[in-house]
Amino acid sequence: MIKRHPTDVRHRRMATASVLLGLVGLAGAGAASAAPGIPAGVWMWDDGRAAVQFHACGEALCGRIVWLKAEAAPQARPLLDLKNPNPALRGRRVCGIDYITEVKSTKGGGWKAGHVYDFDGGANYDLDIDSVDGGQIRMRGYKGLRALGANLTLVRPPADLRLCAATGA
Questions:
Q1: Domain limits at 19?
Q2: DSSP-assigned letters across all residues of 108-168
């Protein structure tokens, strides 16, 4: 068995981290990103229910709903934000709203302390983006205690995904 010096392991970890951060930046190749490591481009729920596009909002990261399976059928009606706690917003279309807001960059290259809006229930939750790689984003939404939250995985959508009109696309 070959014994490695502790600094060899640290150097290897730092090199691996640098490569991973570079890949995150390239994950949205062709899409403009506002800061290094932002998961650029369009991402879809792993169950195929909706898609979100990340964008910079000041120093933070936000994500707008750009596609909904419920609206994909030719005769489908727009999905409205009927359960929003603010009665003035209950008539707005879900497609086009900022679903993810104010996620802050961390020193380690992650994204923490943001918010996610559950348009099915009209509730806001805390949000951390746990990991981003070339093909998946793993997030955790929670109310107060992170350990009691739920995970959501986003994947790249099909290339022919037609974005909703509310996005301007």
A1: 6-167
A2: TS-EEEEEEEETTTTEEEEEEEEEE-SSEEEEEEESS-GGG-EEEEEEPPPTTPPPPGGGT
